[in-house]
Design brief:
- The protein is of the alpha/beta class and 329 residues long.
- Helix content is 29%, strand content 26%.
- It has 9 helices and 17 strands.
- The protein has helices at 10-21, 49-52, 58-64, 67-74, 93-102, 111-117, 139-152, 246-259, 302-319; strands at 2-6, 25-30, 46-47, 84-88, 107-110, 127-131, 135-136, 156-159, 173-176, 190-200, 210-213, 219-224, 228-232, 236-237, 267-278, 285-289, 292-296.
- The chain is elongated, with a radius of gyration of 20 Å.
- Bound molecules: flavin-adenine dinucleotide (FAD).
- Flavin-adenine dinucleotide is lined by residues 6-12, 29-32, 37-40, 42-46, 162, 177-181, 194, 196, 232-233, 274, 276-277, 296, 298-304.
Amino acid sequence: MRVLVKGAGVAGLTVAWQLYRHGLDVTVIDHAERAGAGASGIAGGMLAPWCEREAGDERVLTLGRLAADWWEAALPGHVCRRGTLVVAGGRDTGELDRFARRTSGWEWRDGAGIAALEPDLAGRFHQALFFPAEAHLDPRAALSALTAGLEEARMRVRFGQAAPAPSELTFDRVVDCTGDAQIGHLPGLRGVRGEMLFLQMRDLAFSRPIRLLHPRYPIYIVPRENARFMVGATMIESDDRDAVTARSLMELMNAAYAVHPAFGEARVVETGAGVRPAYPDNLPRITEHDGVIHVNGFYRHGFLLAPAMAGEVARQVLQNDRRDERIAP
Ligand SMILES: Cc1cc2nc3c(=O)[nH]c(=O)nc-3n(C[C@H](O)[C@H](O)[C@H](O)COP(=O)(O)OP(=O)(O)OC[C@H]3O[C@@H](n4cnc5c(N)ncnc54)[C@H](O)[C@@H]3O)c2cc1C
């Protein structure tokens, strides 16, 4: 069966990978010049279903807890399973109790326990919640590796194309994974703007994502290769994709500084803004319109929930084989 996948973000590439693993012939197209040109390329890459349960539905945990295994099986060596550390400043320690009440899968750590996990945080916080089963990955590296894997398997991944080549105009199924480009087309889909920055700092090292609880702007810092730290992310009800605002930059920097003042000397090597596509319940959906399957609404959970949704798309495509009614995308 020949399937066209539109969009080479995390949704499209995980669907394409899952379909290829089921033996289908897959073509991926993206109008951008590289994988992850949308929200996926600026994501934190946290696979944190226990932490995300704090403000998310139970399904974020039940579906998301499978994600780290899926990514590790697809891309061996890409997943760091070192947990998540959640901290709060002196005046906000009540936030930790609140976070603990709304989540599970954590262990309390005192100052010595924090320093044992993250030596560079020694003396900075008295209490933390440690979520040992959580994981993270580098989104850009993961998306490039999925693209390379598909190409090695002789699937076609075409960048700079919003439509398939004229010689390939018929497919048995079309799966649309174009993310926020569908706002205004898919009923109920809205945008939640997220801004982030990359800091580079050789004097600090973290092994795992650190979340800082704060009543106004909870943020996280995710370590990356090459002494880089991804600092994210704002949550603004808007589909504005324009550059990071000065206010958001200031708040993200303040929060990083609150985690460790050494970040004051860090280099700001990149800033980014993207739009998380979301439905009213903030859960992803698979819908069908005019014969096209749409997978969208990943909100804060693209890397966390795409594996489960890709499995469901593959099941639907295989069960509902429509080779007799070819679709022109
Ligand atoms: C700052 C930030 C941090 C985040 N952190 C995390 C995190 O730590 N963990 C997590 O799980 N999730 C995280 N998310 C959420 C996650 O990034 C999104 O849920 C996810 O990226 C959505 O993926 P997508 O593939 O649906 O959309 P996108 O990544 O936006 O992909 C859509 C693709 O479709 C392409 N496209 C658009 N229109 C067309 C067209 N007409 N033809 C062809 N191609 C087209 C675009 O170029 C793009 O590549 C974060 C999001 C943000 C903004």
